[in-house]
Amino acid sequence: MAFDGKCLPVNDPDALWPYCPSLVLAIIFAILFGFSTVIHIYQAVHYRKTFCWVIGMGALWETLAFVFRSLSTRDQTNDSLYRAQFLLILVAPLWINAFDYMLLGRMIHFYLPEQKVLGVRPRRLTLWFVLLDITAFLVQIFGGLLASTTSGDEINSRVRLGGRIYTGGVALQQALILFFLCLAIAFHRRVRKESVVVRETSWKILLYVLYASLTLISLRVIFRIVEFSNLDNPTLAKHEVYTYVLDAMPMFLAAALFNIYHPGRVLVGPESEFPKYTRAEKRVMKTEQKARKAEKKAMKAANKKNGNMGQEMPNLHYQERQDNNILPM
Questions:
Q1: Who has greater pLDDT, 285 or 78?
Q2: What does the pLDDT read at residue 242?
Q3: Residue 119: left (phi > 0), alpha (psi -120 to 50), or beta?
Q4: What whole-number distance in Å separates Cα of residue 164 and Cα of residue 162?
């Protein structure tokens, strides 16, 4: 069936959209995210913050999502355009989420002399959360691919399965955000109450921007969980306004906030980045780490042995006293 550029009826067997999508809104958000992307690229170069390419990638994926959405509104029978915009809108926020994880790690490294929060080193914190974020990303991609299978108004088994898998992925994402928020609050309390900040630049505004970003991402995640948890009666999915108010707008604000107050403004100098080591230096560090572990193990074994000897000594003294008592006067 040829598409004439007008909205197809929802009950049309060729219809991919459950409503009449707005071309104007799609173009507006493609421009907004595109503008944010360009600024993020400039700021990353200007402030020499290579890790900021991550949030730039998130803004770029959002831009592409709404470009494909704009094209799909004019070609509503094109399955490729529909699936492209659908998947990109679903997974693009994970880039911004990963950026939040990377940012806090660098703030801990830069502002705390001990360079750890709740016993966790910033480099390890960043690695763990980014790897788990990638796991959530893969789960959401797989679920989104299944959920993007459409057959008019019919919700088939693949769509239900995809919805459940995607819901599991966003639920994992939200669980990570909540745990990560605990670490952010722990960092906040340390620098506020213990007065351990030794840098000239202020951490407060950047941390509040981080809180705002996590809140906006959480709002979007909760919306998607509710949306995909009831695919048999998809009330939210049948109204486009929810996608823009509870997904597109929060994610744009999350990206734009870091345009307004970029980390490069406060994380300045070589000490604001994780140190980079050569392979030879890493080998030396691993050797030294193994040596320290072996030394600790030996000390623990020695202490345990001395502790046992200490327990045996009172028994020896007691036996000696007993022997003295039976000796003739």
A1: 78
A2: 93
A3: left
A4: 5
Tokens 């509710």 -> residue: 226
- Over the stretch 38-78, which tens digit does the pLDDT of each residue have? 999 999 999 999 899 999 999 999 999 999 999 999 988 88
DSSP string, 22-89: -HHHHHHHHHHHHHHHHHHHHHHHHTT-GGGHHHHHHHHHHHHHHHHHHHHHH-TT-HHHHHHHHHHH
Taking Cα atoms as reference points, which of 167, 187, 284, 144 lies closest to residue 229? Answer: 167
Contact 302, 84 (CB under 8 A): no
What DSSP line would sit under 175-208, residue for residue?
Answer: HHHHHHHHHHHHHHHHHHHS-----SS--HHHHH
What integer pLDDT is reported at residue 56 of this predicted model? Answer: 96
Looking up tokens 């030394």, which residue turns up?
295
Q: What would the mean pLDDT of 230-257 be, rounded to a whole number?
A: 88
Q: Are 96 and 133 in contact (CB under 8 A)?
A: no
CA nearest to 83, candidates 18, 150, 168, 25: 150
Tell me the C-alpha distance between 245 and 243, whole Å. Answer: 6
Q: Left, alpha or beta for 268 (phi > 0: left; psi -120 to 50: alpha)?
A: beta
Q: C-alpha distances in angstroms, 231 versus 20, 84, 171, 299, 324?
A: 19, 20, 16, 60, 88
How many angstroms separate the Cα of 261 from the Cα of each of 204, 249, 254?
11, 18, 11
Q: What would the two tokens of residue 124 be?
A: 């390890």
